[in-house]
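Form 12-C: Joint structure prediction
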Amino acid sequence: MLLTLTTTRPDDATPASDLGYLLHKHPARVQTFDSGTVHVLYPEADDERCTVAVLLEVDPVALVRGTGRREPFVLAQYVNDRPYTASSQLVVAMGRVFRSALTGRCDARPDLVDRRWPLEVHVPVVGCTGGPEAAQRLLAPLGWEVEATPLPLDPQVPAWGDSRYVDLRLRGTHRVADALSHLYVLLPALDGTKHYWVDEGEVDKLLRAGGDWLAVHPARDEIARRYLARSRALATFALDRLAEVEGVAPFEATDDDAASPSGGAAAPEPSADVPLVRQRHEAVLAALRASDARTVVDLGCGEGAFVGRLLDEGYARVVGTDVSVRALTTAARRLHLDTMPERVRARVDLVQSSVTYTDARIAGFDAAVLMEVVEHLDPPRLAAMERVVLGVARPRTLVVTTPNAEHNVRYPALAAGGVRHDDHRFEWTRAQFRTWAQRSAGAHGYTVSFAPVGPDDPDVGPPTQLAVFRRQAQPTTGAGPEVRSDGTTSDPTTRATNDATTRTTSNPTSTEGDR
Amino acid sequence: MATLDLPALSLVVLVGASGSGKSTFAARLFGPFETISSDWCRGVVSNDPEDQSATDAAFDLLHHAAGLRLAAGLLTVVDATNVQPHARRELVALAREHDVLPVAIVLDPPQEVCVARNAARTDRSVPSRVVTRQRDQLRRSLRGLGREGFRTVHVLHGVEEIDAATIERRPLRSDRRDEAGPFDVIGDVHGCRGELETLLGRLGYVIVRDDAGRPVDARHPEGRRALFVGDLVDRGPDSAGVLRLVMGMVGAGHALAVPGNHEAKLVRALDGRPVQTAHGLAGTLAQLAAEPEEFRREVRDFCDGLVAHLVLDEGRLVVAHAGLKEEYHNRASGRVRAFALYGDTTGESDEDGLPVRLPWADDYRGKAMVLYGHTPSADAVWVNNTMCLDTGCVFGGRLSALRYPEKEVVQVSAEQVWCEPPRPFLVSGPAASATRDPDVLDVTDVLGKRVVETTLAGRVTVAEENAAGALEVMSRFATDPRHLLYLPPTMSPCATAPEGADLLEHPAQAFAQYASDGVDRVVCEEKHMGSRAVVLVCRTREVAAARFALPAGSTGVVHTRTGRPFFDDARTEELLAVVRDAADAADVWASVGASLPGDGTGAPVDWLLLDAELLPWSLNSGDLLREQYAAVGAAARASTRATLDTLTTAAARGLDVGDLLESTARRAADADAFTAAYRPYVWATDGLRGVRLAPFQLLAAGRASGGATFEQRDHLWHLGVADALVAADPHDVLLTTRRLVVDPADPASVEAGTRWWTDLTAAGGEGMVVKPLANLVRGPRGTVQPGIKVRGREYLRIIYGPEYTTRANLERLRSRNLGRKRALALREYALGIEALHRVVADEPLWRVHEAVFAVLALESEPVDPRL
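Section 2 - Result
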């Protein structure tokens, strides 16, 4: 990987090659550091023009053997862009070989330090999430003229389009120390991968370290996010290895799927002051209150945001289930399960479960919630889910929410079609949702009613649709035996008979009575 | 000398005062672990066997330990005084909880013996007044022991009697494990004598008649025996005649029978006890009233003597009228008998006044096949290795029998509707099996640490965390388990080429390995560098729906090595149509059917399960190619080129950059080679245009039920099936797999194989897979690797990175550990074959899914992904 920094004369009295003093590297020599992996040399160096090149040779095999870290894609360690792109390794090397220049020290020629040099930076390959616009956003406010040219993925396969790398050229007049510090923070930030969740304290730390310019940078939040996202430890779950066999990205449970539609930019929340995810939580809570539920199972709880809400609401028993161990681990951390007071801890559990396998642990609840879950199932698997939830677990009340596909035209990013999240296998119109809900409710002895979530657009309806399934009372048994086509009967409710036991855990401090 | 009869599985409660000799008695007659003593338990929980304050904890331990033993089916003796009713009550409850019979053995030597023994003890002493009290309590208890629930009570008086006593363990009456059959298990007859005679005739029995022409016996020339699941009587036209025939058969040893609820009620009626005579009992009683008194008594004794369930054939077959869950097999208690006679009910009635029955079979996970009746069903279908044989003959349905162990259903239609059913009873055709309960998979079938029994590799263990990972992938991506029959195993590469070679993998190592395994012929098959695909294709929609529960309009699946469908429904059907057309044109259905092993019919098969490669690779792995391979290539090319320019400029200035220039030029060349390595596997597709499917193995095939697997057929047979399909394909979608047979012990043949591989990979091919020609081969060290891949030098660039061919890099990469990968490949292979065996044996869904799921779970074991 390579970075070059070129200057012309800063003024008539100073030859361009004085840059060598400032960098503390002689223009006539080829210098090698770090046991032969970092080279500093000057392809041109005269009075008019001087270019310094930092060249980093990364050993791809040592890269693999030396690191215990796992990459998102299993072969990534071996098929790796790091030997070729300007990223943290290059800036770390730069920080070492240009340490004094970066800190603004030059014992031989102190006068050069605060001089502003006409500079041109060239980084032939730098990862740039968000494309040339992101480079523009991060670097232009600092006084750089930015030229970021995307590299095509494969000139022989034009259909693939551009890669996430750009050829980056920056022109501007700066102190050399400032220029280096810009590169030091912003090259890794440009490369920054997806933001997940960053602790507030870490943001402050970076802002302090980034110096004056970062504190007043208009895109400083974005810089912080991009920069810190890189350092997020990747959990090693079996899922990674599995999903990646086929190049499927592991599913990231996000708080709000609608915030990350396929196609990049987040879909805005039109006319919604309260984020849609909050509105959805409120709507489901309202439905649960109306059902007089005391025990609730949140099926597909993801990282547990709604489980937390349910606990706050004082439900006597709250169980969150998810098929992803990773999501449950995050949920346990975010809910602070291990430091929770015993009385609260006794009311909540997180268990791995799948809505396509029957599971005694999800049976016997007053209410179950399927919030933004059904659209993550392939349509042929919906029947299994209906059987597992409505046929066997048989909560008294089931609340289901799912996106309203008609509303997608209100999201500019989705106007041309598409779904709100890469993993959505379908999104239903209101009519489709009703048809499905009424059929499955009827088949399992439930009635169903519907409600909008979010602003109910007169033309395309609300962004989210909600259905409440209520188990019908049976005339003689009350439990609802299922009459099979062969004339025999079955009552799946009694497959899991923990109804009574779950009730005994009721919490005397519940706020149920206040509502 | 007293011989005490004990049920082989029972809870034996010793009753006797301190010093009565219980421990000595137990030590003499029972195994060292069979007896749990309260003194020992006191010692465990308090360090002092006499510490009376530890009694509560000691008995907690005693009950717990005894419970664990009983749950495991082990006879257990409780050595405690047990002279107080409450102590015995708890033990009777424990026995009932585990459905074993409680037995009391009372030891009652004279008072002075007890006192003297206590006095002689050095470790502890019980005062004589305590002994006196205990003996009083014992005496008061003696008469009530039967009422307390003890099914057998033995009382031994005097020292001599105690010392001379022996025990005799008797198998439970239900335990007929030594009876191996073959059997013809016959469903609820309900007085339909005519249909029963017809059915017995169809099953090959010869009916014996008395002078009056009444059937009194039936014998099978091959010694088969009938096995009646109960409800012989009521509702139908000739219950008395049915009883005469069945009693004759049982008496002659030509049949076995279990009672139904109707027999149980008949016994009560014949005993003169008050019963409701609805549901056909009145008719039976009327018929019997016309018979002699002696016959009525025989009927009464016959029905009363029947055992509620039978465990047969080494525990592989269980018969009970209303079925029986696994925990109750070979157990004895009131509730076991009630379950066997009446089934699992909620105790509630539905709107028709019929009891609400629980679908115990849905949850059944036992190894034994359970055959039962009781609940009239439209058709006899398998649910988790159980089958209800009551097909409502008396209601105008059919009388059904199942041949065991053949698992073949034989039926005769009712002559007429003999009794109006309490609710509409629908008789359906064979297609009714499609309406069987959909997926009865439970999360406990797959989660947690699991051990899967395989015929090929014994017990294969799946770690809990791997199962957890697989649950997510299976739930989110895989197709419906009902048509996910197989996942392909991972495959090991050949041993690493030795130092000095300019590559990592070479055919020589693969040939050498098979030569050392004693394999005399191997087949080299071209590797297509597509995506592994498993193709299930059915001949008709009807078969697809009935056999695999495929949704309407769907005739199969095409899925990846993790079970995910490649295409949407429409394109899947399009591709399946291509395969089906080819199979029709080449008449593969018939040719495979004609050679199906263990089946004389030779009828065409109705479904094929093919192992194949789907091309291009970019079809399924477009994202991976784009975002990983192409991206790294783009970065590598741009970076090395820019560096080269910079160094060239520096060199022109006279700087000494010779070495750097040289290594950078080499890196630039490697970057180009890397890009060139993936390009052959990328091309555009549109619908099916551009898509190629290369089948190379027929995994299994079958009909509406049953089928066969083909791991014993040699690979040229498999490739022959593939070739027939390819040749008959007018759509130009199916692709042939080039192959070469090599003798790994013959240098010339090895040389030819090596040249073949060299040419293949030089032309941009991925490489080849070397397999034992004979397919499944068991060597002296166990199963031989089913295949070894030898990948091309250029192809490996996309695995090991652009610069892996540099000498220094190659030497470092040579140290790769193949042991785990090889072991994993064999375990997954065994699981895959196991899944296929279970499919063609029509085993329950959970059994098939267990093996398929385990393959996926093992795939998440951490092994070097480059292998």
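Section 3 - Comments
Chain A has two domains: 2-229, 276-514. The CA atoms of residues 17 and 46 of chain A lie 6 Å apart.
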